[in-house]
Description:
By secondary structure, this protein is of the alpha+beta class. It contains 4 helices and 20 strands. The chain has helices at 5-37, 105-155, 162-184, 187-211; strands spanning 43-51, 53-74, 80-84, 92-93, 98-102, 214-216, 221-226, 233-234, 246-261, 273-278, 286-293, 298-299, 305-313, 325-342, 347-349, 352-358, 364-368, 370-374, 378-383, 390-398. Strand 10 and strand 11 form a beta hairpin. The relative contact order is 0.19. It holds the Pfam family RND-MFP_C.
Amino acid sequence: MHVPEKLTVLKNKKTSLIIAAALCLSMAIGLYSFAAGRGEQAVAEEIKEVTVKKGDLKIDLAADGKAELDTVGLSFQINGVIKEIPVQPGDHVKAGDIIARLDAEKYQLELEAARAGYEAARARLAKARDDYNNKLIAAKEKMDNAMLVYQPMSQVPDIFPAQEVALKKLAADSTREAYEAAKKATSDIKMEEAAVAQALVNLKKAEKNLEDTVLRSPVDGTVLYIAGKVGESVSGGGDNADKQFAVVSTGDSVTVTAQVLELDIAEVAPGQAAEVEFEALPGEIFTGRVGGIEALPVTDASGIVAYEVSVLLDKPDARIKHGMTGTVSFIIEQKKDVLIIPNAAVKRVDGATVVEMYNEAGEIVTRKVKTGFTDGRNVEVIEGLKQGDKIIIRTRTSAQGGKA
């Protein structure tokens, strides 16, 4: 069979390419095996370009925190059945607005009975005083009459028989003693006065109980919580009192509390700047200041000791709800709005601090820089670069995927 010359040449070239490729592959395998045999790894270098920008640097101490709004807890002081709840959570209220009302029939009847008891006690007291005054007047009249008889006789004793004068004197002395005793006979009045005082206490208590059937907000704010429903019973007063039937937030301030471990508490002080990011509001930072540090520690079940620290936010936000959780960053040191670059871009060459960048010809060159504060990831650039400059970071990666 005849094979064209051109086809033969092509077949020879194809065969040569295959042989060459096989030889290259064999050499590569051999080199890799040789390197592997010596325990060496193939290394690749990745070059990434980053832009010099302005930003904030900070060293902080992080802790979990919880928002606590400035709130007022409201509770009924008496027992009763809820008759009306004219508000619900989320409603805005003014000071004096009704939060809830109990069925007041029982307390209205008690008030009427207490008022009647008070009036009856006052009437008894008035009668006791009248009786006292009448007895005193009668006793004084007898004394005066006895004295009118005795005094003239005592002035001329020789005219009257001595026995008669003695009898008149005895009668005058007796009526005087009876008058003095009548003046001191105030026990009935005092008893009735005490009864009136007790009746007044009962009346005031009944008035207070009736007033307490209505639960009012003492402040302007927002209703956060309502515990009961219409028709339910509530207990007030004593150890078994229902606590916080309602909670109203004034919205005047937001405090975030965090527990800081005892090893870190020395880094926190009153007045220190802090930042809070809530889980429900990601990406938004709320600034504040440390308000106080509890002197007594908190110890959890595992024995870890921490101290509760309160942070007062600079600008309360209506979106922040009571009990929201987030992260509190206690600022130890920071710099704002400075030129920053990654720490990985900075090198030391012959005692100088330098970064690498491309020149106009596309070649990698070094430039001296002066650096300042660092947060461990980025560093402040004081001299040598300006905003918008491009620098490069070299990353060497082994064949096994690790950084060399």
